[in-house]
Structures are given as structure tokens and as C-alpha cells.
Specification:
globular, single chain, three-stranded antiparallel beta sheet, alpha+beta, Cytochrome p450
Length: 394
């Protein structure tokens, strides 16, 4: 392998519009599928489906315990299961997986629908608004709080801190990231203290499940339980907010598709899968090679961070024909990587799919039509998608 450093292939710090990242990634897939950037201390980016899939499947070589996102955000210790490699991460996944069983998730549907309808009525009364700040951010936080069994008294704080953390990450405000992250840790500590004082059923309560779990007969270390709850608090909030916003942008630009889906909501499950492919909310999940490797002719040294551009891989023309077009009848619709692959594949898929489906169904059911009333605001690494979507209801 050649050890010489190549010049920077792309700059992730340039100003972006809602569509521009996909244009950059399309060009990189054709010209430089394994790209290097000097940003954030330097990192590699895998843009094609095959290379991203390879890294996800080879977890013994491409590890997540060194750096799990680009740019690096964690500064307060390890947060299972994402920050751990197999087999160390496995007990934490095993403790949480039963809480995502489809039958448990399905019981949330009436509450999600009622909440969505309530949030939309307030927007409809005003004739529109920012779909992310007025609808999807509140919906996702409340839904997650319901799944997590967060005390009602803590939900307003979770809404405020969760949104502030997301804004801090998007604006690269390191001090605010630290401040809001520590507040999320305080909330996780409060959750643990509450469950220890008033135990809950581990079969229905995620915090109780982590407290009850054992590794070789011993309970999880306190700091690892804390880290797990802190991690779950964020991943269950930010990504769904972005995806709902991105879907709204697409539908606002395509009134015929709006009407088609309104007329046949039974098509929504397949539509959601195609929207997930087109608007995958992550581009900065990372792995680190634990030895020197060569990927598509590029020499990557041991210890160098590698961003897995899910959002680019899911628009790879070699896998998805007419990849930039919405087609919910494509035969390989279930091959997208929106939830990852391998041992770190998203455990919350059933909740995410239900939440997205209901959010879009209710938006269509309670409106006759909608259009953009301004330009959507784009998120930055590690996410990709809509941070703000101004809509006008027709």
C-alpha cells in the first residue's frame, strides 16, 4: 500500500443547501469513492454502498470504540452500546432489544396519533409554521419519552435540552455541546435514581432492564448504565426529527405524490422505506481501522477515522436504479442502509418506522395540501437532512 497522503478530496465545512450534499456525494462516488478530508483533524469517507457495507460487516477490523461519529463529539466516557465493539457491546443490546419488540411498540400507536393530531392542529390554526420546531421535534421527544417511560415532570426539560443539544452540534458550538450533554447525563442519573427508589418491570421499562441485566452474574457497571441511558436519550430524538422534516420537503415539492399518498395511506409503509433510503439522516457514523487497510486502492492507516456516508451509499447508482428518484415500487427497497447493518444495526427500527409512518400519515390526513414558504435549513455532520422546514398549509 502507498502511505503518501492524498490532497483533500472534499470539504465538509462549505455552506450547504438541502440538496447540495447529495450532488457532492454523487460526484465523489464517480470520481473518488474513498475520499479524504482535512476537516476535524482529518478523516476518510466511504461514499459507495459496497465499501460502507464492507466496513459495517467487518466489525473485527473496523471498530467503533475509538470514534463513533465524525466529527468526534463524545468527551465524557463510553456510552454503550454504540461506543463498544462486539462482544463487549452485546449484553447492552441484549438488555434493550426486548423493549423494541413490535408488539410492545404497536401499543404506542394511539398515543402517537393523538399527539401528532394535537401538534398539527396548532400549526393549522396558524396556517403553517416550521414543521421541525413546531411538529417533528416535539413529536419525537414525546414519543421517545413514552417508550423510555420518562416521568412527565422531566419531559419539558428533555424537550428543551434535547433540542439545544442538537442545535449546539449543528452550529459546532463545543461549549454548548458540553453543557447540554452534561444536562442529559443529569437526566439519566435522575432516571436511574428514580428506578432504584421505585423499581419497575424490566420487561417494560428500559432503565429497569439495564439495572436488572447481568454479565457473568454481575450487574452492569454504574457508569455504563449511565452512559447507555445518556446515549439512548439522544439517538431516539434527533434522527426522527430530521427524517420527518426531509420527507415534508420532498412532499412539498411533489404535490401529486402528496395527493397520491393521501388517497391511499395503505402505501405508506413502502413509501417510508423509500423515504428512508432517500433521506437517511446520518452521514457521519464512523469506524476506525485497527490495522492498516486498503479500500478501493486508498491506503488507510491504523487509527484513522472513517466516516460511513450512509446517505451517499443509499443513493449509489450501482445498487439503486435511478437512485435520486422516489420509487416505492423498486424491487430492492429493503436493501437500504438507513438503520445500518451488522452488530450495530439500529435496535430502534420498529419504533422509528411506526413513528415516521404515523407522523406523515397524520400530516397528510389533517391537511389538504402544503408547500414550502421558505428555504429549508440543512443539518451538518454527523447528520444530514432538514433542521428547519417552513411550510404553508393550503
Amino acid at each position: 500500500m502507498t502511505a503518501a497522503r492524498e490532497p483533500q478530496d472534499f470539504d465538509p465545512l462549505i455552506a450547504e443547501s438541502f440538496d447540495s450534499p447529495h450532488e457532492v456525494y454523487r460526484e465523489l462516488r464517480a470520481r473518488c469513492p474513498v475520499a479524504h478530508s482535512d476537516a476535524w483533524g482529518g478523516f476518510w469517507a466511504l461514499t459507495r454502498y459496497a465499501e460502507v457495507q464492507q466496513a459495517l460487516q467487518q466489525s473485527s477490523v473496523f471498530i467503533t470504540s475509538v470514534q463513533n461519529v465524525v466529527p468526534r463529539l463524545a468527551f465524557t466516557g463510553r456510552r454503550p452500546p454504540l461506543h463498544l465493539d462486539p462482544p463487549e457491546h452485546t449484553p447492552y443490546r441484549r438488555a434493550l432489544n426486548p423493549l423494541f419488540k413490535p408488539e410492545r411498540i404497536a401499543r404506542l400507536e394511539p398515543k402517537i396519533r393523538a399527539l401528532a393530531a394535537s401538534l398539527l392542529q396548532a400549526m393549522i390554526a396558524r396556517g403553517g409554521g416550521d414543521l421541525c420546531s413546531d411538529y417533528s421535534s416535539h413529536l419525537t421527544i414525546r414519543v421517545f419519552a413514552e417508550w423510555m417511560d420518562v416521568p412527565e415532570s422531566m419531559v419539558p426539560d428533555l424537550q428543551q435540552v434535547g433540542r439545544a443539544y442538537n442545535i449546539a452540534v449543528q452550529s459546532a458550538n463545543g461549549e454548548m455541546v458540553r453543557e447540554t450533554s452534561l444536562k442529559l447525563y443529569d437526566m439519566a442519573r435522575a432516571m436511574i435514581a428514580s428506578r432504584r427508589q421505585e423499581p419497575r418491570d424490566p420487561a417494560t421499562d428500559p432503565t429497569a432492564a439495564l439495572l436488572a441485566a447481568r454479565i457473568d452474574g454481575a450487574p452492569f457497571p454504574d457508569e455504563m448504565i449511565l452512559g447507555t441511558i445518556r446515549q439512548v436519550l439522544v439517538v431516539g430524538i434527533i434522527a426522527p426529527t430530521i427524517v420527518v422534516g426531509s420527507i415534508a420537503v420532498h412532499l412539498a415539492r411533489d404535490p401529486p405524490l402528496q395527493q397520491r399518498l393521501r388517497a391511499d395511506l395503505s402505501a405508506m409503509p413502502r413509501a417510508i422505506e423509500e423515504f428512508l433510503r432517500l433521506y437517511t439522516p446520518y452521514r457521519g457514523f464512523a469506524r476506525t481501522a485497527n490495522r492498516d487497510v486498503e479500500i478501493n486502492g486508498r491506503a488507510i492507516r491504523e487509527g484513522e477515522p472513517i466516516a460511513l456516508l450512509y446517505a451517499s451509499a443509499n443513493r449509489d447508482e450501482a445498487v439503486f436504479e435511478h437512485a435520486d428518484q422516489f420509487d416505492m415500487n423498486r424491487p430492492n427497497i429493503d436493501q437500504h442502509l438507513a438503520f445500518g447493518m451488522g452488530p450495530h444495526m439500529c435496535a430502534g427500527m420498529p419504533l422509528a418506522r411506526l413513528e415516521l409512518r404515523i407522523a406523515v400519515e397524520e400530516l397528510l390526513k389533517h391537511t389538504r395540501g402544503f408547500e414550502l414558504s421558505g428555504e429549508p435549513t440543512q443539518t451538518r455532520f454527523p447528520e444530514i437532512g432538514a433542521l428547519s422546514v417552513p411550510l404553508r398549509f393550503l
